[in-house]
């Protein structure tokens, strides 16, 4: 049955990095199909929040529900099930350098329970076409540009048709023109119904591709859908 619940629901949560609380009393929702930026200065808690959402850091206080999973109550064996429902995109690509693009993507399919080689082959072709890279399956990561590698990472994140993509500084290592191309790709993915939560330091991207903004500042989160705040330049966010 179709659920209208938010894909992310955070209620009275405190986010920890080691034994230090970095964000306190957080409450916000991200609806299905919504595009949201996450901003904040280095050390403001952005990455810790993202890691808590995909269960890389434990949640000790409050409640977070992501794609139907209760993060605080989930058991360790449920983490792979959660990560089949979400796509995670990192700034530094994290592709296996000694495997082809096709082998990188197939590895993720096998790791998340795919068995039939014909279905894997069809999915591989489909996700590469979606990111505009129909002909790179047999190439090694080092043969691709930075922008192409990031597109492969996005293709990898789309394999299990996630409800949400969580992207941590996905354009941080790319030049402005390539970043624009990646943002246009994110917009296409978002229009097809996938929610996106994207951490960024780039005020320019937010200006060019406006959307809701969550700002981490002084241990709290401010939400542009209900709070008023200014984003001045890249150093501020």
Concise summary:
The protein has 237 residues and is α/β, with parallel strands linked by helices.
What does this structure look like?
The protein is an alpha/beta fold. It has helices at residues 46-53, 79-85, 101-111, 117-130, 146-158, 176-191, 203-208; strands at residues 8-17, 20-30, 35-39, 61-66, 69-70, 86-89, 164-168, 195-199, 212-217, 220-223. Strand 7, helix 6 and strand 8 (195-199) form a beta-alpha-beta unit. The protein is globular and about 45 Å long. The chain starts with 7 loop residues before the first strand and ends in a 14-residue tail after the last strand. The model has no long low-confidence stretch (mean pLDDT 91).
Please estimate the helix content.
25-40%
Binned strand content:
15-25%
N-C termini distance: 40 Å
Number of helical stretches of at least 4 residues: 7
**How many β-strand runs?**
10
SSE topology sketch:
Elements: E1 8-17, E2 20-30, E3 35-39, H1 46-53, E4 61-66, E5 69-70, H2 79-85, E6 86-89, H3 101-111, H4 117-130, H5 146-158, E7 164-168, H6 176-191, E8 195-199, H7 203-208, E9 212-217, E10 220-223
Helix pairs in contact: 4-5
List its salient traits.
237 residues, alpha/beta, six-stranded mixed beta sheet, four-stranded antiparallel beta sheet, 7 helices, globular
């Amino acid at each position: 049955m179709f659920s209208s619940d938010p894909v992310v629901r955070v209620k009275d949560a405190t986010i920890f990095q080691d034994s230090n609380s970095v964000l306190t009393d957080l409450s916000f929702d991200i609806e299905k199909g919504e595009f949201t930026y996450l901003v904040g200065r280095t050390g403001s808690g952005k990455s810790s929040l993202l890691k808590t959402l995909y269960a890389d850091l434990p949640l000790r206080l409050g409640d977070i529900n992501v794609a139907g999973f209760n993060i605080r109550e989930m058991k360790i064996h449920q983490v792979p099930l959660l990560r089949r429902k979400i796509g995670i995109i990192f700034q530094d690509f994290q592709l296996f350098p000694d495997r082809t693009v096709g082998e990188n993507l197939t590895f993720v399919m096998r790791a998340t329970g795919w068995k039939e080689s014909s279905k894997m082959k069809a999915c591989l072709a489909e996700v590469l076409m979606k990111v505009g890279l129909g002909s790179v399956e047999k190439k090694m990561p080092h043969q691709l540009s930075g922008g192409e590698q990031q597109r492969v990472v996005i293709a990898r994140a789309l394999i299990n048709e996630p409800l949400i993509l969580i992207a941590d500084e996905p354009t941080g290592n790319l030049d402005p023109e390539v970043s624009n191309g990646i943002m246009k790709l994110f917009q296409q993915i978002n229009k097809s119904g996938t929610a996106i939560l994207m951490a960024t330091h780039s005020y320019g991207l937010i200006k060019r591709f406006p959307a809701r903004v969550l700002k981490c500042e002084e241990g709290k989160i401010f939400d542009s859908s209900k709070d008023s705040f200014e984003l001045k330049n890249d150093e501020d966010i």
